[in-house]
Amino acid sequence: MDVDAGHGAALGGALPTRPGELPLTRRLRSLLTWPTTDSDPVAQLVRAHRTIHSGADPAVLRRAYTIAENMHRGQFRKSGEPYITHPLAVAQICAELGMDTTTLVAALLHDTVEDTRYTLQALAEDFGPEVAHLVDGVTKFDKAFYGKAAEAETIRKMIIAAGKDVRVLIIKLADRLHNMRTLGVRSAASRERIARKTQEVLVPLCDRLGIQTLKRELDDVVLLHLEPEEHDRIARHVRDRPGWEAYLDAVVARAKTALRRSRVDAEVTPRPRHLYSIWKDTVAGDHPSPFDLPRIAIVVDGPPTDCYAALGAVHGTWRPVPGRFKDFIASPKNNLYRSLHTSVRGPEDRTVEVLIRTTEMHRAAEYGIAAEFRFPRTGSGSSARNEQLDWLRRVLDWEQDTADPAQFLESLRCDLAEAQIQVVADGRQVVLPAGATPVDLAYELGTERGDRCLAARINGRLAPLSSELDEGDVVEIFTETDATSGFEADAAPRGPRREWLGFVKSPQAQMQINRWFADHTEPGISIIDKVRLGRATIGLALRTHHRGLASDLPLLRLSEELGYPDLETMLVAVFDRVIEPDEVVRQLIDLVDHRQ
To answer: Could you tell me which residue ranges the TGS domain spans (predicted)?
Structure first.
């Protein structure tokens, strides 16, 4: 069996082209694999669409195909295939995702405005403003006019269009997936460039939308073109592992028995890892051979509480591996993925991974934002969709403050970064990039709080604003207006500090700090500012001990005892964290109490 035949198109599309495959070879290969017929080229598309949406009218799909075929007639892809094969394949991917008729029509027409004489106005007249918006959202800017900024401006335009209709992003992902499947006919430099950009932006975007059924294939095809030898090594491992299926069948049978005894109605199936996932864990763990644990999925037919009953049944059958349990039901991921993850010592004392989720959770895990189109009667889909798109609204907020398209694209890459953490602030969970600081959090809570951020308490202790936050930290943000006690009351807020740009991680924080300094001509922080803020920091630290100061006299005495030439020098040292404010306050309290 060809390697790609075993791990090819997740949604049933054509096999990905291998690097270096000649156009003539590809054309002959397509004659064997392309699923349409001359008499009805959209038959498979209609069939896939009506399998999920039985009441759909195929007439509009046929009309859209006819226009697309006429407009693209005479155009060919680099593989030598007629160009119409591409929009038809993109529409097929959307159909297999379960998208609605409007999305499929837009997918068929998505390149007409960009590559043919068909205008956006004509398209709107033929198919309505909804389809026109989707097509316009995925239409690229002309490189001849925009130059190097064309790519970044195109992505910016797509994100803005997705703010009105998220189906723009789904069409774009389907478009890129088919292009990645056929990337083998391009030069080595083109393959690497396109695969790298796919890995940096579109794969994380697919993950953020929760569409794992697309992400798995994108991951694998990216691996094929960036690390072809590693791709083949992992594929050989998957193909040749002896006794793998028999072992998983035994695990599944034992799990089913345990669930029946616990009266949990569930479907249990093997859940093999895709190639990129195996490769990633192999590299991350520095394993000499592919690291691939057996894995099963338990999908319960019942409420979320049945997931915990299923967990009890599994742990009652096999000993759990310490430290390997994660509850993404109680604390969903940022793309709303929900499931229980555990690892157990299964038969033959081998470690087995187990995923446990409800049917609704399973649908959401596979199809993400597309689930509401594939399963339109699943109740709370709209509220889940609103939560899932919070990140998109945040991107749109700071997009308006970014004039430079390259900076916007870099900020988007950061925002879509896979590594993220959740912290607790103001009684709610906040998602931040890994390595984020209290300043990032302050700006996430509001621009004014970010601009006036003075100090932070992490898990009950004052900490430098440059401190990296960890998963689950409880954080309190103090602003300059919080530190009003006597001698500090007349200190007006002065805005952010330039040195924050050296450690903030989130695009929101970077944008707002840069915008503040663009609007103000004041230089970076002065010694006077450091004195003022050092004094305010001590005031905040004193408040944690329910203490305060009526004058500077105790501070003057302490600065002398600590060997500073004057009070201002000590306050600058506090601001620069040469001496920690907690230590200053401890000695200050000892000094005052002892003198009394």
So the answer is: 417-479
114 given a catalytic annotation: yes
Structural domain spans, the chain: 3-226, 240-378, 419-521, 526-596
Which CATH number applies to 240-378? 3.30.460.10
Residue the block writes with tokens 């030598």 = 80
Record the pTM: 0.74
Mean pLDDT, the chain cut into blocks of 10 residues (596 residues total) = 33 53 46 51 95 94 96 91 95 96 96 92 94 90 55 78 89 94 90 91 88 95 95 94 93 97 96 94 90 96 96 96 92 86 95 97 93 74 60 70 68 71 86 89 89 90 91 88 48 71 85 77 64 82 77 84 85 84 86 68
The token pair that represents 184 in the structure block: 């083998």
Q: Mark residue 29 as left, alpha or beta (left: phi above 0; alpha: psi -120 to 50; beta: remaining).
A: alpha
State whether CATH 3.10.20.310 applies to domain 419-521: no
Q: Which two tokens stand for residue 376?
A: 């339109």
**Of these residues, 21, 115, 397, 529, which one is catalytic?**
115
Marked catalytic residue, from 114, 192, 327, 582? 114
The CATH label, of 1.10.3210.10, 3.40.50.620, 1.10.3720.10, 3.30.559.10, for the domain at 3-226 is 1.10.3210.10
What are the Cα distances from residue 532, in Å, to 367, 475, 571, 573, 581? Answer: 53, 23, 8, 12, 14
Q: Is 227 known to be catalytic?
A: no
